Amino acid sequence: MSKELQLQASNPMMGVIDPREARMVIRRGEYAGHTANVAPDYVQCNLCILPRDDALEFSAFCQSNPKPCPVVGMGAPGDPALQGLGDIDIRTDVPCYRVFRNGELVDEPIDILDLWNSDLVAFVLGCSFSFEAPLLDEGIALQHVEHDTVVPMYRTSIACTPAGKFVCDMVVSMRPLSPADAIRAVQITSRFPGVHGAPVHIGLPEQIGIEDIMKPDFGDPPVMDEGQLPVFWACGVTPQVAVEQAKPSLCITHKPGSMLITDKKNIELAAF
Amino acid sequence: MSKELQLQASNPMMGVIDPREARMVIRRGEYAGHTANVAPDYVQCNLCILPRDDALEFSAFCQSNPKPCPVVGMGAPGDPALQGLGDIDIRTDVPCYRVFRNGELVDEPIDILDLWNSDLVAFVLGCSFSFEAPLLDEGIALQHVEHDTVVPMYRTSIACTPAGKFVCDMVVSMRPLSPADAIRAVQITSRFPGVHGAPVHIGLPEQIGIEDIMKPDFGDPPVMDEGQLPVFWACGVTPQVAVEQAKPSLCITHKPGSMLITDKKNIELAAF
Q1: Sequence-distant (≥ 6) Cβ neighbours of residue A9 within 8 angstroms
Q2: Which residue of B has its CA nearest to A55?
């Protein structure tokens, strides 16, 4: 049995609700799987680690495009800790990493202790999971959750503000909602500016360069019911596309689905 | 007559409400004074320019302490433009600069064309002016505005999250308000997370290390009326203190009161 299968078989994450407990299992190298439903009340983050010079431009890019690139935490150069998000060692606390060199995927290690050095800077970015929880809590049904599919995501014609080598158009995620739910969803997600915030568009996808709503660029095609509007939020795939196109000499991310679990509660991200 | 007096005598900013017009006058070197009431509907920003390595740590510091350090714009390294805030050249568009070397004030030039280089990064930070306008619009009287004094500011015992060499306690500004106005002010300023957001404390200054409310560390002593509570907001002096203590080899700021005027309207900073 491969190490990966052994890890899955032991399933040490079943029922874990405490983020510290989850991270300790991951830190010990005992779990390399996805983090869906692990410590569900707590903020999970996308990871992007870059060398110092690229990090400075990336920081300017995120700063200039806060809706698609909501930075929840940023480490000081060379510091593997993320103050304020818990007792985190970014070198070990993500279940599975991806290592890119000049834009090419070269490895998927379960820690990056060998790769870490004083030139590296860690960014962790919020994801839509943190605003989907309060939507669901308020009784707003989300079709991709009900159908257990991946939310549909689209490249748009909305230009992000460029910063140095980071230049791209915004990627959006889409959730079909009734007009009443769409209005309520604008209100609810406005409370979460740190995890994409309010929608960037409602109802007329052709205005933002989306030709066929049934053909997303990422994720699964949506199931649109009669009387629903497509509602679009800025998506965390945007900074990934920006990094892909910039091809930095080194970039370390999480493996999709295997995210950093922080000690911050989703509800703490509410601005009010 | 000195150049400065000439500049004051000509007073080219009298009645200017368009931010582009104001910046053109400043860019031509024709105005080196303060920017109070110039283009009053538009966001004015504090400036902090740092060399690349310090900039990366400062970016992490601001990212980790968004309430006292609300970054409204950040330039890519070496880029004097600030995308998204208007046609800005950060080397010329602030009326008067301050140049610090190793923490010592060494010059107050009206442009920094000679100093700018590819190693420098510009940060512009929001200020409380952007949230005071909506408070005043909603009929909430502010004592320092009524008395034409400088808002009182205090060093507190609230530790900022450190990042590299940037380590300090939070500085807060205080506005005395009736309990009803304090509640309304929480609601209104919650709409402006990009310019300090909701208060950090109400009513019990000793809990945050303030011994005597009548003895502020910066600004003028307050006038407290019977039945008013002291309401405290995170203050943009905090990053200035952090930079002062870090003593970077070079730091360029605006001269207090002489701020960068952007094309962004104050109301555009409202999160909802």
Answers
A1: A1
A2: B56
Query: Pick from B60, B84, B121: which is nearest to A76 by CB?
Result: B60
The pLDDT tens digits for B216-232 are 999 999 999 999 999 99
Shortest CB distance from A59 goes to which of B74, B197, B198?
B74
Instruction: Count Cβ–Cβ pairs < 8 Å, chain A vs chain B.
Output: 94
Cβ atoms of B261 and B23 closer than 8 Å: yes
Could you give the CA distance from residue A261 to residue A196 in angstroms, rounded to a whole number? 18
B110 within 8 A of B95, measured Cβ to Cβ: yes
Q: What distance lies between CA B174 and its chain's CA centroid?
A: 15
How close B56 gets to chain A, by Cα (Å)?
Answer: 6
Contacts of residue A259, Cβ cutoff 8 Å, sequence gap at least 6 = A35, A44, A45, A46, A47, A94, A127
Residue B175 above 50 pLDDT? yes
Task: Using a cut of 0.95, tell me whether the model's pTM lies above it.
Answer: no
Q: Rounded to an integer, what distance in angstroms lies between the CA atom of residue A193 and that of residue A180?
A: 21
- Judge: A74–B57 Cβ closer than 8 Å, yes or no: no
Mark yes or no for CB contact A161/B71 under 8 Å: no
A190 CB neighbours in chain B (<8 A) are 271-272
Task: Give tens-digit pLDDT for A152-184.
Answer: 999 999 999 999 999 999 999 999 999 999 999
Type of residue numbered B237: V
Backbone φ and ψ for A74, nearest 5 degrees, come out as: -140, 125
Look at residue A37 and tell me whether its pLDDT is greater than 90. no
Mind listing the pLDDT tens digit for each residue in A59-111? 999 999 999 999 999 999 999 999 889 999 999 999 999 999 999 999 999 99
Percent of chain B with pLDDT over 90: 86
In angstroms, the separation between the Cα of residue B194 and the nearest Cα of chain A is 10
What integer pLDDT is reported at residue B221 of this predicted model? 97
- Choice among A3-12, A125-134, A255-264, B256-265 with the minimum mean pLDDT: A3-12
CB contacts, 8 Å: B162 with chain A: 76, 83
Nearest CB among B71, B164, B198 relative to A77 is that of B164
SS3 B239: helix
Q: What is the pLDDT of residue A4?
A: 52
Which residue from A127, A87, A114, A75 is spatially nearest to A254, judged by alpha carbons?
A127
Q: Which domains does chain B have, with CATH numbers?
A: 3-128+247-269 (3.40.1640.10), 130-239 (3.30.2040.10)
How is residue B116 written in tokens?
Answer: 């700018």
- Cβ contact, residue pair B57, A76, below 8 Å: yes
**CB count, 10 Å around CB of B215?**
10
Interface test with B, best of A45, A56, A131 (most B CBs within 10 A): A56
